Amino acid sequence: MNNVLITGATGFIGRNLIYRLKKEGFLVSAIVRPTSDTSTLPKNINMLIHTANSRSLPIFIKSVKPDVVIHLATLFTATHKTEQITDLINSNITFGTELLDTCAKIGTKNFINVGTHFQNYNQEEYNPASLYAATKQGFEDIIKYYTQVYKMKSLTVKIYDTYGPFDTRRKILTLFKENLASGNLLNMSPGEQKLGLTYIDDVVEGFVKAIKAIQTFKDSEQKCYLVKPKQILTLKQVATTFEDVCGKALNIKWGATPYREREIMEVWDNAPNLLEGIDTLSLNEGLKKMLKAEGII
Amino acid sequence: MNNVLITGATGFIGRNLIYRLKKEGFLVSAIVRPTSDTSTLPKNINMLIHTANSRSLPIFIKSVKPDVVIHLATLFTATHKTEQITDLINSNITFGTELLDTCAKIGTKNFINVGTHFQNYNQEEYNPASLYAATKQGFEDIIKYYTQVYKMKSLTVKIYDTYGPFDTRRKILTLFKENLASGNLLNMSPGEQKLGLTYIDDVVEGFVKAIKAIQTFKDSEQKCYLVKPKQILTLKQVATTFEDVCGKALNIKWGATPYREREIMEVWDNAPNLLEGIDTLSLNEGLKKMLKAEGII
Fold first, then answer.
1. Record: contact A85-B93, CB cut-off 8 A
2. With CB atoms 3.0 to 4.6 Å apart as the test, which of A281, B110, B149, B245 could cross-link to B287 if both were Cys?
3. Which of A93, A128, A148 sits opposite B138 (nearest CB)?
4. Alpha-carbon distance A7 to A29, whole Å?
5. Is B126 within 8 Å of chain A by CB?
6. Is the CB of A246 inside 8 Å of chain B's CB atoms?
7. Where does CATH 3.40.50.720 sit in chain A?
8. What's the rounded Cα separation, in Å, for the pair B196 and B283?
9. Among A166, A163, A180, A165, which Cα is nearest to A282's?
10. What is the C-alpha to C-alpha distance for residues B90 and B82, in angstroms, rounded to an integer?
11. Rounded Cα gap, residues A71 and A37, in angstroms
């Protein structure tokens, strides 16, 4: 289980995971899009620049013959426009299916997939908070075909939310950092929704554990695991922790905007935790680490 | 509930359904592909020739403002090649999602979808016999998003297998008709797999009932119904019935080939039957009707 192929390699989780896997001696290959910035990846990895519908995918995967695929590539939209449907389905279903199909045919048996608790609105086993979440669920139905017919093994990692140094995605902590710098008023919802902010090192640890866990799977097994942080906090508590760590107050007006439609108020956690028994970071510790690394505190 | 929009209108079920709906006074619109032969459709229906990614779909649907959509369009493959994955997903997931999205936005609340008992291999609630079946299941996950968020209603009709006069698809009865004409030896599997051959008029009746049933649905309801024929017979029994009706023997070597991988031996029937209480045709009656119409007997 030393030969790992990663999609979505240039994303925030992807690049952090690759450095960790290289450090542990894994042989790492990556599939990236032509538009992705690969400058942050290690130089000595085997890489395919993949364009949709190109024939290079099976050729590359056959040459790599990975023991395990970690499929991080995804297109996320909180809400979607009609024009985004094709891209959403191509990215979140079609590409993964082509990947699975090739794995099945060359005998790569282990497929680590990424899900979202947005698939579990209202804490239900399946109720999508967004079309994005529905495409993730649809892809799990496709995985079932490959696990059943080709006796593959598949582990879906569900992550709540991730943070860490030099994350370029526009997320809640980005807004807080901007607010700290500008001092402008930030209008927010009432802030009682629960968040599972997970520090990137803990997320990466979760994927390393996933590689171990999938080795214990039986043929055709398809299972979901969580990467759970130490604390599940409300958005308001996250803001307070951020203020504590910075020693400065944020300028937030709580309740100025309504909750998003289908806002997740309580996180779903009806799956085993890959970080069980591991001493993960509290939000206070994680924020300190991040803000220090970024030179903010 | 008088204004019906049909996709897959030129298919075997589509064209038969359209004639029936027209006869009953429905206003019928149809979406067809540029490659489809529309010569068998009634002349006086509202039709969109749809190419993928064209912008005409929402414009057409907005102009039609259907009360109910019957989504028959599908790409069927018993087994698939890697190169077919994009087409399978585009046809069976992406197109339907665009359709749902437009319906949601213009306020068309009723969506009749078509499933397959290939989604229920081994008589399980979900275990796909083929990638085709997995794409059908994936699409039901997408439907869930639209029913939940836009309070739409969706009824999935599961059909076993259909037959009737002038069906151009290559199916088991086509092989029997060819065998009758040529007398050549036909090599078959052992023939103990159960089939739910349903006469086209009964299938069409099922869809008419589906239009009635969906009107009783509550907001956000998503439910599956079967169109069940009078008899579920083994392939061998189907052959015997065919011979009885024709008064001639087929030249079949049973057991000459193995069963297909993931052959459905027993049909799944864990859903209410839209044809409950209706006097449907026995296979003997249906075959007689078909073979007479075609001038074979």
1. no
2. B245
3. A93
4. 9
5. yes
6. no
7. 3-159+199-227
8. 10
9. A163
10. 14
11. 18
The second-level CATH assignment, the architecture, of B3-159+198-227 is 3-Layer(aba) Sandwich (3.40)
CA distance A187 to A254: 6
Q: Does A53 touch chain B (CB under 8 A)?
A: yes
Domain with CATH 3.40.50.720 in chain B: 3-159+198-227
How far apart, in whole angstroms, are the C-alpha atoms of residue B134 and residue A145?
6
Out of B53, B93, B102, whose CB is closest to A89? B93
CATH superfamily ID and name for A3-159+199-227: NAD(P)-binding Rossmann-like Domain (3.40.50.720)
Residue A280 to residue B34: CA distance in whole angstroms: 57
Q: If chain A, 297 residues long, is cut into consecutive pieces of 10 residues, what is the mean pLDDT of each piece?
A: 94 96 96 90 88 84 96 94 95 97 97 96 95 98 98 97 93 95 96 98 98 98 98 98 97 96 93 97 98 94
* Residue A144 contacts B, CB cutoff 8 Å: yes
Q: Which residue has the tokens 């990846």?
A: A41
What is the distance, to the nearest Å, from the Cα of residue B67 to the centroid of all Cα atoms in its chain?
21
Tell me the ipTM for this assembly: 0.94
Q: How far is B111 from chain A (nearest CA, A)?
A: 17
**What residues does CATH 3.90.25.10 cover in chain A?**
163-196+230-267+278-293
Q: Which of B219, B41, B221 is nearest to B113 (CA)?
A: B221
Consecutive 10-residue averages of pLDDT for chain B (297 residues): 94 96 96 90 88 84 96 94 95 97 97 96 95 98 98 97 93 95 96 98 98 98 98 98 97 96 93 97 98 94
